[in-house]
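Reply to dn_fold:

You asked what the input looked like. This is it:
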Amino acid sequence: MNTITIELPQPLLERLRHEPRPPQQVIVRALERWFAEPADKAEPVGEMDTIITELKQEGVIVEPTPKMMVMAARWDALSEQERRHHREEMDALCLDPPLSQIIIDSRR
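and this is what came back:
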C-alpha cells in the first residue's frame, strides 16, 4: 500500500474525524467507487464536487438540518469582533477529560 497526503477543507476534516470508521477506510472506499464509474459521464464534474458526492454517499457529509441552518445564520449575523471573541474562548477551552478521551469512551 502507498501513502498519499491531501489537504482537506476544515469542515470536511472535522466530519471525517467524527466518522466511526477509520478515515483511511472511508477515503479508500470513496476513491474505489469514484474510479469504478464510467469515464464518459454526461456532464463533467469538478474534482471537489466528486469528492464531496462520494463522501456524502459514505455518510461522512450530510445535508444541513433546519437546526444547523439556524445556527449558521446566527453565526453569520455575528460581527467579526464577536466571532473573534468566540474563537478565542474556544481556543482557551480546556476539557477534562480531553476530547479525544470523550470520543474513545463514546465508541465503547
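Residues 23-36 form the longest helix (14 residues).
Hope that clears it up.
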